[in-house]
């Protein structure tokens, strides 16, 4: 899945390249596990308990608690090193029946900061559960990966700009980017990916004291939940997957589908904007669409300076727009931010979407312990997104393919969207030079024998098409129950009272909606 984030407007900085030519990723074969999920050398990890304390940080809610769990760096060699994963929780207010673990998507969204910022959405679940989230390996405070500055951004610029007419130059920039990512990411990079994160999730389950995992995953978090169900079917409790990811489509197809979906969402935004006298593109929707394309191209050619010392490019604007389009509630803010950019050259508003408001320095990380929140690298979210997506996909754009077909690929992506096509193609190319990713997800995550799980698909989702919900449900088998959300936006839990209620009812009481249930635009049940 490419650049799909959570229910709230968690947003990405400039997409940085990830990967290194000399790194070995987890392949299809998984180390042997005992029936309880443990194996040789893993007992000590399954014997730990979380020690909770008040979260440190100026903007941390006072009632949010933080902790950590320690996991093997390499599950195939559990004695070869460890890393710590950051956790946060809101404690149950009623009679506690266990925990429900949240993943907010990305891949690359940091669960601790997301839960701190948006915990109000989940307070209903504290009637029976501790509500827990975590920073997956390579993300946030959990040994964050980074690609630094320089070669990675050069690769982004060259993959779709003038240098794209010289594929060998693009390949060289991609190689440099891979080396930069390896340099700045440290020992976690070869062991990043959903297969290992699912195993981490089981260690977290046990450390929380739960016999079964109760789980609510959004967007990419649905991929993580599905992989967990395949690896640990006997440990599955109540699982909800909202904004369901594909388990089968290669990154190349995901990129085209994503560009098409985002273009549709952009068209809807422009139609809405053109009805407002304050719209920076005027009141002619057709002309406004052309102006957006021209603005992106203009900024790519002549970036504008920012308060952070970086230049703001057209691709930065594309990244900002793509995140803002996930929710109609963000459209007024996006309109104002673009107006400030166009009229005054003020990048602060659009950078608020492009960075989530972060302004942290890029630093090198070698420690496997928890990183201070102020030391999380500026590009961690996009660097983790690319590292995890590449690790999860066995396909790679070969050098010969890039040299011979880069022009054809550009045309295909630009036909999907003149605004988002280049951005999506860049995400695909960034896997060049990395060893083959795992084929476990594509080949083996199917026909799971678990208790019933709830899959929520939103008809107007610009990031995870509704058909992915249907396809994934068929792939997972009889365990999957689909809730059809006939609404707009990315995921349904935060935008639909109907979806919210049905999800909470299932997690709290085990009551699944009947097969064929739906939530309408007005949140009526059908």
Write a structural description.
The chain has 526 residues and is an alpha/beta fold. The protein is built from 17 helices and 12 strands. The strands form 2 sheets. It has a 10-stranded mixed beta sheet with strand order 1-2-3-5-4-6-7-10-11-12, with helices on both faces. Residues 1-29 and 355-366 have low confidence and may be disordered.
Oligomer: single chain
Query: Which strands sit side by side, in order, in the main sheet?
Result: 1-2-3-5-4-6-7-10-11-12
Mind describing the biggest β-sheet? Answer: 10 strands, mixed
**Roughly what percent helix?**
25-40%
The overall pLDDT, averaged over residues, is 84
Strand content: 5-15%
Can you count the beta strands? 12
Order of helices and strands: HEEEEHEHHHEHEHHEEHHHHHHHEHEHE
- State the low-pLDDT regions, or none: 1-29, 355-366
- Indicate the overall shape: globular
Radius of gyration: 22 Å
Tally of helical runs: 17
Note the gap between the termini. 30 Å
Structural class: alpha/beta
Q: What attributes characterize this protein structure?
A:
alpha/beta, 12 strands, 526 residues, disordered N terminus, 17 helices, ten-stranded mixed β-sheet
Task: Reconstruct the topology from this structure.
Elements: H1 43-46, E1 53-54, E2 64-72, E3 82-90, E4 99-103, H2 111-118, E5 130-134, H3 151-160, H4 167-185, H5 194-207, E6 213-218, H6 220-231, E7 236-242, H7 251-274, H8 285-301, E8 304-305, E9 311-312, H9 314-324, H10 331-344, H11 348-355, H12 380-392, H13 399-416, H14 421-429, H15 440-444, E10 453-460, H16 466-476, E11 480-488, H17 497-509, E12 518-519
Parallel strand pairs: 4-5, 4-6, 6-7, 7-10, 10-11, 11-12
Antiparallel strand pairs: 1-2, 2-3, 3-5, 8-9
């Amino acid at each position: 899945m490419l650049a799909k984030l959570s229910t709230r407007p968690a947003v990405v900085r400039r997409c940085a390249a990830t990967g290194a030519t000399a790194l070995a990723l987890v392949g299809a074969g998984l180390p042997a596990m005992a029936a309880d999920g443990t194996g040789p050398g893993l007992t000590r990890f399954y014997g730990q308990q979380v020690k909770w304390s008040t979260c440190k940080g100026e903007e941390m809610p006072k009632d949010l608690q933080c902790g950590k769990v320690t996991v093997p760096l390499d599950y195939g060699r559990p004695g070869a090193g460890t890393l710590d994963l950051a956790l946060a929780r809101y404690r149950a207010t009623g009679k506690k029946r266990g925990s429900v673990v949240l993943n907010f998507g990305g891949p690359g969204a940091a669960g601790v900061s997301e839960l701190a910022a948006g915990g109000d959405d989940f307070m209903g679940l504290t009637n029976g559960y501790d509500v827990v989230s975590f920073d997956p390996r390579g993300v946030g405070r959990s040994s964050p990966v980074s690609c630094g500055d320089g070669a990675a951004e050069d690769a982004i610029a060259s993959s779709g700009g003038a240098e794209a007419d010289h594929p060998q130059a693009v390949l060289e920039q991609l190689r440099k980017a891979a080396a930069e990512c390896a340099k700045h990411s440290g020992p976690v990079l070869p062991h990043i990916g959903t297969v290992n994160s699912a195993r981490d999730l089981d260690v977290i389950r046990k450390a929380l004291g739960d016999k079964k995992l109760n789980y609510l995953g959004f967007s990419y978090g649905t991929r993580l939940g599905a992989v967990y169900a395949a690896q640990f079917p006997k440990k599955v409790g109540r699982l909800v997957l909202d904004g369901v990811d594909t388990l089968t489509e290669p990154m190349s197809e995901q990129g085209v589908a994503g560009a098409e979906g985002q273009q549709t969402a952009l068209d809807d935004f422009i139609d809405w904007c053109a009805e407002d006298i304050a719209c920076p593109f005027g009141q002619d929707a057709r002309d406004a669409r052309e102006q957006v394309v021209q603005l992106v191209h203009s900024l790519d050619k002549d970036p504008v300076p920012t308060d952070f010392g970086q230049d703001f490019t057209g691709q930065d604007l594309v990244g900002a727009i793509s995140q803002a389009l996930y929710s109609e509630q963000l459209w007024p803010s996006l309109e104002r931010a673009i107006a400030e950019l166009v009229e005054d050259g003020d990048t602060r508003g659009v950078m608020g979407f492009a960075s989530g408001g972060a302004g942290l320095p890029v630093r090198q990380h070698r420690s496997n312990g928890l990183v201070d929140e102020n030391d999380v690298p500026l590009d961690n979210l996009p660097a983790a997104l690319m590292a995890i997506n590449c690790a999860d996909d066995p396909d790679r754009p070969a050098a010969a393919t890039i040299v011979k077909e880069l022009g054809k690929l550009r045309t295909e992506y630009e036909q999907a969207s003149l605004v988002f096509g280049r951005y999506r193609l860049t995400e695909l190319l960034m896997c060049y030079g990395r060893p083959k990713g795992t084929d476990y997800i594509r080949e083996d995550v199917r026909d799971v024998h678990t208790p019933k799980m709830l899959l929520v698909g939103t008809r107007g989702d610009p990031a995870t098409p509704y058909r992915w919900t249907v396809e994934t449900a068929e792939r997972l088998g009889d365990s999957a129950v689909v809730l059809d959300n006939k609404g707009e936006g990315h995921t349904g839990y935060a935008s639909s009272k109907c979806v919210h209620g049905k999800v909470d009812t299932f997690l709290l009481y085990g009551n699944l909606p009947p097969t064929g249930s739906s939530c309408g635009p007005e949140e009526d049940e059908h």
